[in-house]
Amino acid sequence: MLINIQYPLGLGAYHILRQVMEATDRVEGVYILGKAATLNADVGDVLISDVVHDEHSGNTYWLDNCFSFADVAPFVTSRSVLDRQRAVSVRSSFLQNRAYLDFYYRDAYTVVEMEAGPYLGAVFEAGDPSRYPTDEQVDLTRPAMEVGLIHYASDTPYTQARTLGARGLRFEGMEATYA
């Protein structure tokens, strides 16, 4: 069975995935694909993270991402693929300002998005009968299922009008989306 959850936004991602996992005998993998702001790349680039800090729980998830540069690069010809990125799952896309982004950038967080942290909370609970912890470093390098995380850069908050929304999807967004 393959389930596609579109645009769950924040904790909705956790609740939907948790319900699916409770109703399913076995989950082979969870693959998180979405858009994100980037602090070190350009619009349309592909971002592959192996660390996610979740502002909802305060947890930092360390994962063995099943996707790598080698998996994606052959399908991307006009944009960059950046692996070993660090992502932060924020509560809202409207709460960020330069000082806020600088705070995370100083700790090498370069991907800003809204769902990966809550999804990873549900992944944690699939392999552990307790509720996900709060304010901890969480090791998901050997989870109960395969985990993959890829984002495409939809905007660069340090620049003005550098978003796919302001310019349309065009080729730079389309290649990253469908690679």
From TrEMBL:
Short name of any one Pfam family annotated for the protein: DUF6909
Protein's name in the database: Uncharacterized protein
Source species of the chain: mine drainage metagenome
